[in-house]
Amino acid sequence: MRLKIQFETKGKKQILPLNYQYPISAWIYKVLSKADKEFTEMLHDEGYVLENGKKFKLFTFSKLSFPKHTWRIIPNSDRMEVWARKAWLTVSFQLPEQIEKFVTGLFKDQKVFIGDKISGIEIQVVNVENLGQELFTGQDLQELQDYDDVGIKFKTISPIVIGYFEDGKKNEQYINPMNSGYKAIFINNLIDKYKATGDNNIDINKINFEVTKLYTKTELQTIKAFTPAETKVRGYHYEFSLTAPKKIIEVGYNSGFGSMNSVGFGFCEVVGHDLQN
């Protein structure tokens, strides 16, 4: 399920840190926690795996967007100046259909401060639009309904993060999509997400991933800035083709590809498709 959340701002010039993904993630968790007991009970009933019995992490989100000419990056800084009166972002969840309306209602009329200890912006939710539950219900993908295995072409809206831990090192190493081990880590990560929905029946031979266009743009985000837990994470922008059973592709589309999705990485959009027998 994807929710387009529209905000209003104060309409005054405000300063937003470029590393705003973690504050948005924290806000989403806060919204979900307001219905903690009922929400987690529903997820348990549907067979979802919850971290520590409570936290639901199969979600991601897009960049925060503003109308043209209503913001600018401040030169030689990690801040942007915003004077927009409107803003929006899309949050994507892997959810059972019967929980959609429940979650949609949680975000209505919310107020939030997005920022860090230095600066931020105050915004209020004015509209929440449910963009749909499944990837293949869109008109351009309806012809795939009769196929079990399909090929979908995606592009990154927020960068994809793929990492691994080297022997003897505590910090995760983030790797380029052209790295020889990238493909296997990408596919295994997707399989783990799918297993979290309660289905372990997976034929790994039916899954294939190929980078089709690598952009020069990369993003280095600072997570938990100005705290003892501060971490720098690098993600990459590219286009890729993913062939797999439809239900597995849907999990990646809904919850994000790669790792650290709940901090806003791995949000992708469809750019095309290939029919598979």
Write the layout of secondary structure elements.
Elements lengths: L1 E8 L4 E4 L3 H13 L2 H10 L13 E3 L9 E3 L5 E4 L3 E8 L6 H7 L4 E5 L4 E11 L18 E8 L6 E2 L8 E2 L7 H14 L12 E16 L7 E15 H10 L12 E8 L2
Antiparallel strand pairs: 1-6, 1-8, 2-5, 3-6, 4-5, 7-8, 9-13, 9-14, 10-11, 12-13
Helix pairs in contact: 4-5
Shape verdict: globular
N→C terminal distance = 27 Å
Number of DSSP helical runs: 5
Proportion of helical residues: 10-25%
Please, how many domains?
2
Round the mean pLDDT to the nearest integer and report it: 84
CATH fold topology of the largest domain = Alpha-Beta Plaits
CATH architecture of the largest domain: 2-Layer Sandwich
The count of DSSP E runs of length 2 or more, i.e. the number of strands, is 14
Q: Unreliable segments (pLDDT under 50, ≥5 consecutive)? A: none
Structural class: alpha+beta
Helix and strand succession? EEHHEEEEHEEEEEHEEHE
